[in-house]
Each structure stands twice: as C-alpha cells, then as structure tokens.
# Entry
Amino acid sequence: MNTSKQISQWRIVAASVCGTSHSKNQQLCQDAHHWQLLANNVLVIAAADGAGSAKLGKVGSMIAVETAIEHLSRQEITNDTLANDDVLRYLLTDAMLVARNAIETEADVCNHQPQDLATTLILMIATPKIVAVAQIGDGLAVARNSRGNLIALTIPSNGEYINETTFLTSVNAVETAQIKIWREEIVNVGVLTDGLQMLALNMIIGEPHKPFFLPLFEFVANAEDRILGKEHLMRFLSSEKITQRTDDDLTLILAAFINS
# Structure
C-alpha cells in the first residue's frame, strides 16, 4: 500500500535553463543547482551562477554546488545542530570553503587561474522549523511561513555597477558572505539565480514579489510527480512571459513542506 501521502515531507521541484542570449550565441548554461533530502526532513540546497566573463564559469558553478551538497550531506545534522546558530553558521561557512578549495584544485589541475572558474553560490539548510542560508554574490533565497508571510533571507550582493558581483573565488568572499538564520514554522523555501531576481524581488524595498512566488509555491505543493513537475517548471522558465523580461540563464529551486 502506498502511504507516501500520509508522511510529512518536503516536495521539491528544481530546474536550470539556458538564457536566450546564451542560446543565440550557442553558449552553455552557466547556472547549476543541486539538492539533497537528508534524514529528519533536513533539506540542503545549492545554486550557483558561473561568471559570464570566466572561461570555465560553467565548470565552476557545477563544482561549487556538487561539492557543497556532498559535503553537507556527510555531516551529522542533528536536532542539537539545528538548535545552535553558531554550528549552523560553521556548517555553511565550511561548505563554502570546501567548494572554493575544490574550484582552486580544479583550476590548478587544468592550468587555469581560480577566477577562470568564478561563480556565485547560495547554500540553504531547511527544516520545517528553521532555514539557514549563506550567499556569495547575487541571486535570492526566500522562505514562507505558516501565516503566508514571505521573507527575503538574502538579497543580491552587487558591486558598484549593476552587473558586478562577488564570486566564490573573490578575495574575502567567504568571510563576507551573507548568512541568515530564520526560526519559524516553514511552509515553503525558494532559491533562484540572478536571471530571475528582477522578477522575483522588489529591489527598492527588498521584499519578495508575492505574485511571482505564491503561484509557484502552490505549484510545487501539488507537484506529486517530480519529473513532470520539473518539465512544467522548465517550460515556465522558457516561456515568453519570462524570456521577454530576461535573457539570462535561469535557475529556480522550489520546495513545499507537506503535512499529510
């Protein structure tokens, strides 16, 4: 008998698609994402956007998300871990450092400089009661509580110019990363790269755009088939509604905690 609907659990849908500008130029999608569901409903998420100016930005983004999630998945994240803000900050910081070291190692093996693999990185540890996020560079992490309120856990980190940002390989990037811990009953979380941030965030006041997120969170809550859900999400990201407003690569990771 199938009892999956009787179990409280995360439902996740995620996709990365190539921006229209990259498709026209026959370039690879520079974005990457990875996630894993651990024991006790601990969800770990990573999203990265390889620098368009970097020779191997795609390689850097893939290494960053895969290394960080693999590292976090090997940690013993217990209730005591989740209750301690300092430990959570350490876990996120350590995962960023491990990801950066992996990029530096790959650069050395390939006779490149680390900046040739430059990438942003967002990491999230989420449970039904807490979300902890670390972010280097642009993009956005969002959570929604049981009362329906949205919070921008992080905001895009830009430099002096609109297209300038901090990368994992930048000097002091890990030391100056945004880290946010939010303790509340969690219904949804979302992570996206900078291609979507102008649609998803009111940049003036720094608040998530409800008309963007609420239908998507309802969608993931009802997405019982993960493969079909990903196909629908990819079609949405590639739709004219989105591509008329952005030609950048797009990554969106959505999760809903289902109390069945």
Remarks:
- The chain has a mean pLDDT of 92.
